[in-house]
Amino acid sequence: MTLAAVDLNLLVALDLLLETRSVREAARRAHVTPSAMSHSLARLRSLLGDELLVRAGQRLVPTPRAEALAAPVRALLVDAERLLAPPGGFDPASLRRAFRVACTDHVSTVLLRVAERRYRAEAPGVDLHEHPIAPDSLEQLRAGTIDVAIGVFPDAPPEVRTRPLFTDGFVTVARPDHPRVRGPGLDLDAFLAEGHLLVAPRGTPSGTIDELLAAQGLKRRVARTVPSFLSALWHASESDLLLTVSRRLVAAVAPRLPLQAFATPLPVSDYTLVLAWHPRRDAAPDDAWLRGVLLHAAASL
Questions:
Q1: Residue 209: which residues within 8 A CB-CB, separation 6 or more?
Q2: What is the pLDDT along the chain (301 residues), one digit of tens a residue?
Q3: In the chain, which segments carry CATH 3.40.190.10?
Q4: pTM, two decimal places
């Protein structure tokens, strides 16, 4: 027998017939006509090769095959109802799960350290594993190897869900005792006269600032590239190199890593970090809870 060829509604009819032992009463409970229920009984008899219910005077009685089917059919329908029922109330305190978040150490420092206070309080059984953001991060969402990605995704495929988290911009920093760069401001000539640090995970010595300079026919010297934002800030604090980096990140590390910050002397626009996830996780209550925690943390920045 091929299950796909079987009308599983017949199991509902069989359960009612075996419980009521009446075509009329089974039809009433199923909200169908007695004729329709009789037709279902005929189909069941043909399917199972057994009369199932037979006349005994004014009533119907089950055959031995029907009696053997009663309990497993009822159990099967109860399991189906449980499977198809809406999920119950979600309690993050009982959650035991690891989430995988693709982001930079910039996002980790600015956003996830704030989010951690909430998810640790609400869901102490949750673990969070950070993955480096990469060109294929949105493909990883599709594949299910990460749960959410946080970054700038101007070319996200249409099926990927996104929500804006926070806006950031750039400042240029130097160590406080830099021999040539001192307040109150930093002009373009002084900016170009110094060597620069660049955060470049793949080691490419060019970025947004270099594109803006090239549009003006100008060029800076990128003397060092590093793969992470925090290591770049650390090197900037101990060298004469300038670093143009997230103003939110600079504010976050300022109490621990003194740096002088200047407005970058170029028309560089702010940018928006977004939360991205795959629609297959839309209705999962634990994933929705994590996204809520991240959005709440971003709103508090």
A1: 170, 196, 198, 220, 244, 264, 266, 268
A2: 566 677 888 999 999 999 899 999 999 989 999 999 999 999 999 999 999 999 988 889 999 999 999 989 988 888 888 777 666 678 899 999 999 999 999 999 999 999 999 999 999 999 999 999 998 999 999 888 999 999 999 888 888 999 999 999 999 999 999 999 987 899 999 999 999 999 998 778 899 999 999 999 999 999 999 999 999 999 999 999 999 999 999 999 999 998 999 999 999 999 999 999 998 888 788 999 999 999 999 999 9
A3: 92-168+272-299, 170-269
A4: 0.73
